[in-house]
Amino acid sequence: MKNQFLFCFLLLSFVGYSQKKVLQTKFISEKIEIDGKLEEPIWQSAAIASDFIMFEPDNGKPIPENKKTEIRVLYDNDAIYIGALLNDENPEKILKEITQRDNFGTSDLFGVFINGFNDGQQDFQFFVNAADGQADCITTDTNGEDYSWDAVWKSKAVITDKGWVVEMRIPYAALRFSAENKQTWGLNFFREIRRDRFKYTWNFIDLKLGTFTQQTGVLEGIENIKPPTRLFLLPYSSFYVNANAAQKTYGTLKGGLDLKYGINDAFTLDMILIPDFGQTKYDDQILNLGPFEQQFNENRPFFTEGTDLFSKGNLVYSRRIGGNPINYPSPEANEEIIDNPASVNLINALKVSGRTKNGLGVGILNAVTEKTYATIFNKSTQQTRKEVVEPLANYNVLVLDQRFRKNSSIAFVNTNVTRNGSFRDGNVTALVWDLNTKKNTYNLAGDFKYSYVNSIDAKKGINSQLNFSETSGKFRYGVGADITTKDFDNNDLGINFETNYYSIYGNSSYRILNPTKYFNSFSARINAYSQFQKETGKIQSNNINIQINSNDKKNHYFGLGMDANPIETYDYYEPRATNRFVIRPTKIGGFIYISTNYNNPFAIDFNPSYAVFDEPGRNSYGFSVGPRYRFSDKLSLNYNFNFFRQNNNKGYIDSINDDMNAATPNTIVFANRNVITYSNTLSGKYALNSQMTFNIALRHYWSYAENKNALSLEQNGRLEDFTGYTANKNSSFYSWNADLSYTWWFAPGSQVSVLYRNNAGAFERNINKEFTSNVTSLLTNEALNHIFSISVRYFIDYNEVKNKF
Q1: Among 303, 302, 337, 340, which Cα is nearest to 324's?
Q2: Cβ(416)–Cβ(426) under 8 Å?
Q3: What is the mean pLDDT of residues 618-627?
Q4: Do residues 415 and 424 touch, judged by C-beta distance below 8 A?
Q5: Three-state DSSP class for 154?
Q6: DSSP characters for 218-235?
Q7: CB-side neighbour CA atoms (13 Å) of 422
Q8: In terms of CB atoms within 10 Å, which of 31, 345, 632, 679 comes out highest?
Q9: 503: β partners
């Protein structure tokens, strides 16, 4: 009888967890004050969502009674309202660090996830932490969470003697839903108790399944509302003061307008007129000794917000838009370049994106950049002339992404760059698929891309990949292959480093889904990858790595890994010449990392690594250490130091071509060198409240490559001593960046930002190994560039203006 009772209990529990929960809401006509008190009588008559279930670490465990969570939802003609009672038997232990927007900090957290079409495709997520801070994002299973998306909504969090309370007002303009009279929305609620690192959801999310957005509950009861006119204007004005030793201090006043317009219930138009990106984060430049360009993060909000559709196929590298000019000026023997712009100005840009109720996603991105000149000075005539380095250019992206069965999609993507005149144009077309079984247990993903470059030497190329994987359970695996032809080139609007190869790869992993005696989480993964030069079949890359990651019962994180290249490989990229290669030796290395619990006021990250090569005296080692201290809920500082050293590294430094008609250089020169890198970063904030913060971000970087002796690359790929080479090809690059800023969200969606920035950098052939002087030499008036700026952006919602007048 006991066994029968236990079986019935487990069966009912499983059915309860696997079914979608349903919450009824009700219409209100009275006004609700967003004050975190829930004192309006209408709140007491609303249905309650409760019985939360643990998401992590003990997936499926009910929330304890002393942490009982009750959520109520109301709506009117303009917005949806959420009231949350988050009980806690120890309210004095609730963590509540004050942070900037979209930064959770060390705080308890409450969130609501809304899908207005209830189609399992994407959630609009809104979070409030116990310090009254806001965060929001768009989430898809394919691309994860996109916190660059920002909506305008109201919230208030208040800590009480029973726990804490959250009240939220989310206007319909911040959501997407159909025009039907009777609405059914996907809905879930989230709670994190930070001191325990316990995460709970209202509708159970089973970690055994490879999906998140499809495991939501349902909100019913919303009727006879209409999607509002989604018209938002964001006018701005900015003032910049620039100063350095080489030019007179000058000021610049800028103004412009960003616009967002909801074309219909699904599609949104975003436009920027007279862009201003002067306050975006600086780039972390490095000493780049390799054959490929350095890839930078995108920090401009327009190109990061709501771009999940444009990431299909990884064809768009938005830093191309307004990036380096396509051409380098060509001075004559008696001329010199006196001005060569490092970037191209963006004239305007627009995006149209959205998804219909039938699952068709449409994305259009268009941008225009201005004609750009370099200035060249003639030493003989004392005259200057202009040379076009980038013509007027149009960048365009089109994405059609059809989703079906709520968890699969097939997409068509086209990118096109058209430059005025006889300059190079580029076009890439792709078919991308992401197919999942009905139960989200297996996945088949891949793409087929075709590129066409229209220039003096027109070329066409193909890139394709296919991957199959198991995506559920404790044990998972994946296998795949890809191929890229020699002339595949998507670099006009994308970024691609390697061509003319095919590869095969596989992986296998294990993870625990519930805590054990020693671990809250534990996972192990092994990956194997082999790449072959397409024409010769020579192996270009071969790697096996093993990684283990864990989180103990005190929420400290530990990990270790081993990395091996067990076979000599043929590198066709480092020689920088057609049909030449250098043979790379075998290698084995490893690393460990330790990250202590960030809940503690003091925490530290530590990550040492070591690798040894099958060459005399060749090895590499380094470490990073990152202490952080939270002085109070308002003040915190994070410091990070990185050191990395490569002994007897072998790399390209020069080419010697005695015969100008030869297809390849006569001699390719490598160097046997030591490469040493240091970097120091410091970041911190002081928050007056959740709307007003002071921030600091400092970075010092120094890396140098000291050549010990020159080597010549032989036709067989081996390196031999080259005693006749005497040129100084040492490299030393050091840089300094400092940002001091103040931000104030003085109204919903409206911000004042004050920024002082200074920076300096230098590249030299002569290496000064005194670390202190390399720092102080960057901090002089002669070296530093100074920028002081004030920017004011004001958010205007057409609906609010309409209601007032």
Answers
A1: 340
A2: yes
A3: 98
A4: no
A5: strand
A6: EEEEEES------EEEEE
A7: 2
A8: 679
A9: 482, 531
Q: How far apart are CA 393 and CA 346, in angstroms?
A: 10
How far apart are the C-alpha atoms of 621 and 613, rounded to whole Å? 12
Strands (E) in 226-321, as ranges, are 231-244, 247-262, 267-273
Which of 275-303 are b and which e, b meaning 16 or more Cβ less than 10 Å from the residue's Cβ? bbebbeeeeeeebebeeeeeeeebebebb
Burial class (CB in 10 A: 0-12, 13-18, 19+), 558: middle
Helix, coil or strand: residue 237? strand
Dihedral pair phi/psi, residue 446, rounded to 5°? 175, -175
What pLDDT, on the 0 to 100 scale, is given for residue 467? 98
Q: What is the pLDDT of residue 662?
A: 61
Q: What is the mean pLDDT of residues 537-554?
A: 96
**Is the N-terminal amide bond of 227 cis, ω within 30° of 0?**
no
Residue 196 identity: D
Contact indicator for 58, 514 with CB cutoff of 8 Å: yes
Residue 517 CA, chain-centre distance (Å), reads: 35
Q: How confident is the model at residue 5 (pLDDT cuts 50, 70, 90)?
A: very low
pLDDT at 623: 98
From the CA atom positions of the chain, what is the Rg in Å? 29
How much is the mean pLDDT over the chain? 92
- Residue 44, CA distances (Å) to 166, 187, 386 in order: 15, 21, 73
Query: In angstroms, how far is CA 250 from the centroid of its own chain?
Result: 35
Task: Write the secondary structure of 728-784 as one string of H (helix), E (strand) and C (coil).
Answer: CCCEEEEEEEEEEEEEEEEECCEEEEEEEEEEEEEEECCCCCCHHHHHHCCCCCCCC
Structure tokens at 43: 């709140």
Q: What is the C-alpha separation between 466 and 444, in angstroms, rounded? A: 7
CB 753 within 8 A of CB 746: no
Asked if residue 354 has pLDDT above 70, the reply is yes
Query: What secondary structure does DSSP assign to 385-407, as a single string?
Result: EEEEEE--EEEEEEEEEEEETTT
| Closest C-alpha among 86, 176, 58 to residue 515 | 58
Query: What is the distance, to the nearest Å, from the Cα of residue 65 to the centroid of all Cα atoms in its chain?
Result: 38
Amino acid identity of residue 108, one-letter, is: D
Nearest to 645 by CA among 669, 629, 623: 623
Q: What's the distance, CA 637 to chain centroid?
A: 23
Phi/psi class of residue 579: alpha, beta or left (left: φ > 0; alpha: ψ in -120 to 50)? Answer: left
pLDDT tens readout for residues 145-181 = 888 888 899 999 999 999 999 999 999 989 988 888 9
Residue 477 has pLDDT above 60, yes or no: yes
Q: Please confirm whether the linkage preceding 341 is cis (ω < 30° from 0).
A: no
Residues 643-671, mean pLDDT to the nearest whole number: 87
**Which residues are 446's β-sheet partners?**
433, 466
Mean pLDDT of all residues in 9-22: 54
The answer to whether 171 touches 115, Cβ cutoff 8 Å, is no
Closest CA to 201 of 94, 61, 89: 61
CA dihedral 35, 36, 37, 42 (to 10 degrees): 90
* CB within 8 Å of 74: residues ≥ 6 apart: 25, 26, 27, 28, 32, 42, 43, 46, 80, 81, 83
Q: Cα–Cα distance between 709 and 675 in angstroms, integer?
A: 13
pLDDT given for residue 792 in this prediction: 96
- 646 bridge partner residues: 620, 675
Task: Convert 6-31 to b/e letters by CB count within 10 Å (16 or more is b).
Answer: eeeeeeeeeeebeeebebebeebeee
pLDDT range class, residue 17, cuts 50, 70, 90: very low
Kindly state the tokens that stand for 73: 């939802």
Name residue, tokens 């399992």: 120
For residue 487, give the DSSP letter. T
State residue 1's pLDDT score. Answer: 41
Stated pTM of the model: 0.90
Decide if 454 contacts 486 (C-beta within 8 A): no
